[in-house]
Amino acid sequence: MSPMPHADTLTVVHHDDTRTRFKDVRYQLHRDGIRIWSAEGEHAITDVLMTHAYRHRETAA
Length: 61
Hints:
mainly beta
């Protein structure tokens, strides 16, 4: 199993064009939505139109 991607900032755009923003998260995209792990806990979002994930620092080799 491959490691989950990490994002310094992750924005989820919902079908009604609202946005939910997260910082410093790990995430998994699924056919039914996205699952996000952050300092606040685990989030499962099914109302996903699009996501924007940004990584500002280099990954460790």
